[in-house]
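Narrative of activities, Objective 1.

The group set out to show that a structural description can be obtained from nothing but a protein's sequence at a throughput compatible with the screening campaign. Below is one input-output pair from the validation batch, recorded exactly as produced.
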Amino acid sequence: MIEDMGILRMTIELAPWHDHARRRALHDVMVDTGSEYTWIPRSELEQLGVERVRSERFEAADGRILERDIGFAMVFTSGRSTPTIVVFANEGDLTLLGAIALEGLNMRVDLARRQLVPAGPVPVAGLCAFA
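Output recorded for this entry:
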């Protein structure tokens, strides 16, 4: 039996971006730095009241082109939160925490410890030397 040695799964909380009080925990979410967007089951997003804003096309690892709706939500984990783009995943799609959410949380994957850790100072350009 092959173990999920390089895969990090975790619990996150999700809420509509405009109503943080409507948080819902999602368990066993795979952290996927190769996926830009966060993929959440359509039924979960609809129950939370997350609105679809448009349809987007995605290329799967096997080359298939998929079309899914996207919207905006708040993600909460590891004592942090961020607004992010969420994909209305169909049945059979994976539930994923994507790279844009990780960047917004300013977190990175530490596979040795199998957890998210702070990514450190956020890069910035053009600051005044007198600050």
